[in-house]
Design a protein that fits this description.
This protein is of the alpha+beta class and 280 residues long. The protein contains five helices and twelve strands.
Length: 280
């Protein structure tokens, strides 16, 4: 397990759970690219340059500054950031328990695994995790991460607790200027019935492993072909049928899905089942 990037505690009432936070996201699958000079293929390097002295500046001479008026900065040191302490710097205090289904997905940002830290932390950790699971609630509070106080929600995920940073209400744009159709208007009952039937044909249990980053696979194949000097052949994109109306689109989609299900059952019936003897 990766090293904890934040250590402190969770509190609710007088109950305290010493914890550490570990990022729950693995970014190893992303392809990394460098900027090159088109003329000779050499790598472009970004330099830290001082406009006043017209020289490059080493890291040990760089400080953080806040612009309080135009071109006027106040320098903040590591000690200043250490002094900027609020309770959320060391403690994630759960201020409210709210129904999980009441919080819209657009509030959530980055998830972190929460691990118990130290002797005696396992019991209150398990109690809080299982209480959240039984009640279907989130524990909401604030926490200081990377020199910024963030709203966050605590929820169970199997054996683990997960703390997910959230956006504050003022950071969420209102959709009032988007000229959206009103709820429960703009469609007919027949169209809704067909839409539900189509959704039923596409419904299944949640399996995150069923989804894959195919774009990265195709892009990696193009990179390998260029390295080997091979001709690059772009995959053929499927052609979507043109439809004249919403009703026609629903009817055709439903028909195709039902046909696909029938074909799938036929193919499954032709496969040899476990334990079945093959004919001699």
């Amino acid at each position: 397990m990766a090293r904890a990037l934040w250590k402190g505690s969770i509190s609710f009432g007088l109950v305290t759970v010493p914890i550490g936070l570990v990022s729950a996201i693995e970014a190893g699958e992303e392809l990394a690219f460098n900027l090159l000079h088109k003329k000779d293929g050499s790598r472009i390097i970004q330099k830290r340059f001082c406009r006043e002295e017209d020289v490059e500046v080493p890291w040990n001479e760089i400080v953080k500054g806040y612009q309080h008026t135009k071109d006027q900065y106040v320098v903040l040191t590591d000690e200043d950031f250490e002094r900027a302490r609020v309770p959320a710097t060391q403690v994630f205090e759960i201020r409210r328990f709210v129904p999980a289904q009441d919080v819209e997905d657009l509030y959530f940002e980055h998830p972190y695994y929460v691990k118990p830290d130290g002797r005696g932390s396992g019991k209150p950790y398990a109690l809080l995790r299982d209480a959240l699971a039984e009640t279907g609630k989130l524990g909401v509070g604030t926490i200081v991460l990377r020199q910024r106080e963030r709203l966050a929600a605590l929820e169970p995920a199997g054996d683990a607790l997960v703390l997910t940073t959230m956006r504050f209400a003022h950071e969420i744009r209102s959709p009032k200027d988007l000229d959206l159709p009103r709820v429960n208007e703009g469609w007919t009952e027949k169209e809704m019935k067909l839409a539900r039937q189509l959704m039923d044909t596409l419904s299944d249990d949640w399996d995150p492993k069923a989804f894959k980053d195919t774009y990265t696979d195709v892009l990696r194949g193009i990179i390998e072909a260029k390295v080997e000097g091979k001709e690059i052949v772009a995959p053929e994109m499927p052609k979507r049928a043109r439809v004249a109306s919403l009703m026609e689109a629903l009817q055709k989609s439903l028909g195709e899905r039902q046909l696909a299900k029938v074909e799938g059952r036929k193919a499954a019936d032709k496969r040899p089942r476990a334990g079945r003897r093959k004919a001699a």
